[in-house]
Amino acid sequence: MSARVSNTSRYESALAVLQRRQAEMSDAQMQMTSGKRVNKPSDDPTAAARAERAFIAQQRIESSQRSVGVSRNAMALTESALGRAMEQLQAGRERLVSAGNGSYGAAERAALANDLVALRGQLLALANQTDGAGGYIFGGQGAPSEPFVDAIDPGTGLPTVAYVGPGGEGQVSNSEQMPTSADGEKVWMSARTGNGQFVTDAAAGNTGSAYIDPGSVTDPSLLTGQPYDVVFSVGPGGTTYDLLMNGATVSAGNAYAPGTAIAIDGMKFTVSGVPANGDSFTIADSTNDLDPFEALDKAIAVLRNPAATAGTVKQAVNNGLRDMDAVMNHFSAGRSTAGAALSRLDQIHERNQDRDLWAKTVQSDAEDLDMVQAVSDFQNKQTSYQAALQSYAMVQRMSLFDYLK
Fold first, then answer.
1. Could you report the per-residue pLDDT of 253-278, keeping only the tens digit for each?
2. How far from the centroid of its chain's Cα atoms is residue 115's Cα?
3. Which one of 22, 47, 111, 220 has the lowest number of neighbouring Cβ atoms within 10 Å?
4. Could you give the CA distance from residue 150 to residue 53 in angstroms, rounded to a whole number?
5. Domain residue spans of the chain
6. Helices in 100-149 by DSSP H: which ranges?
């Protein structure tokens, strides 16, 4: 009885060893086939958890890279659109310079006005450019329809363009600055009027041929920000002008010399041409509400008016050139902002690549197989299995009947 128990125990023990060696060899073969040391969490729970965290990090980085791509496309379109807008404004500037030609009549000026109308339409199309994904690159925080629409200014009766989109800019990430659209109102409708500090203009009722230039600042510390007027008087004794600030006379009876600079409170400007009695010019503080459409519409209205005087045309040309230069400078700043965003996105892209490489390295270290070591281990396990198989075969042949033979 005891001999049978002993033999059975040896058989079971040998079989258990054989099965264990076979399982170990099978696991080693599976690792070599997959190239992974950890194929399931039970293989190495700690390494599996580390590899899983690294894998999740890679997914987040991949999502961030997609966001970078979306933002980069939007900023590239923004920079390109502003560049083309500046080209259109430069073409409009050349038309205005031509309109200042004293030999041009009403027909020639009307033809130039038609050219400016066409340029205006192209600018509006650029302002309403889509991003290719159903949005608008100047749509702020997600305009559902075209953010810029044609309208009529109730004050002047002139055509104008209104921004109807939401303010601000779209963002595709909360942790990184990745804009998906530009603030259309800020980019297109917020240039500084005049020369950036003050705005000169002729009064609407002027009948002479005089016009005023944009002026310049001579001493910023003397600027008051108050409105000024230059009012001309023409009499037997010659032409004089009064300077008024907020409606109160500051200086009266000044002799007028065409083309000679007039200076007051840190400002300098020049009136040229021949003013009529009662003609006046205004100087007001600059504001951040100039847009290219307004600049073009004012010039177009004058050039299309066959009754416009030489002074009115000259003033319209001067104001148009001044305003277009201001808008182009503003667009240039907008292009710089888009370019800075593209540079920042490139840095984020490179940083994500570094992080992705790190995450893949961590995952590889945690779960990948050292193939040289794996081959050696497999050969050892194969040898152990063969030894266990031979041992089992020997034990299986050992019986009383074999002995009696």
1. 999 999 999 999 999 999 999 999 99
2. 30
3. 220
4. 54
5. 36-193+287-368, 197-286
6. 106-127
**Helix, coil or strand: residue 19:** helix
Whether CATH 1.20.1330.10 fits 36-193+287-368: yes
What the block records as the tokens of 87 is 């080209």
* Interatomic CA distance for residues 360 and 51, integer angstroms: 9
Least confident range of 2-11, 68-77, 200-209: 2-11
Query: Which candidate, 258, 330, 341, 254, places its Cα nearest to that of 289?
Result: 330
**Of residues 30 and 333, more confidently modeled:** 333
Q: What's the pLDDT tens digit per position in 293-328?
A: 999 999 999 999 999 988 999 999 999 999 999 999
Residue 386 CB neighbour total at 10 angstroms: 12
Q: Residue 200 in contact with residue 285, Cβ under 8 Å?
A: no
Residue 390 neighbours by CB under 8 Å, 6+ apart: none
Cβ–Cβ under 8 Å, residues 361 and 58? no
Do 275 and 234 form a contact (C-beta atoms < 8 A)? yes
Cβ contact 183:167 at 8 Å: yes
For the chain, what is the total number of helices (H) and then of strands (E)? 8, 11
pLDDT at 378 over 90: no
First-last CA distance in the chain: 21
Q: Which residue has the higher pLDDT, 297 or 386?
A: 297
- Report the C-alpha gap between 374 and 32 in whole angstroms: 7
pLDDT the model gives residue 367:
67
* C-alpha span between 141 and 133 (Å, rounded): 14
Amino acid at residue number 240: T
CB 270 within 8 A of CB 202: no
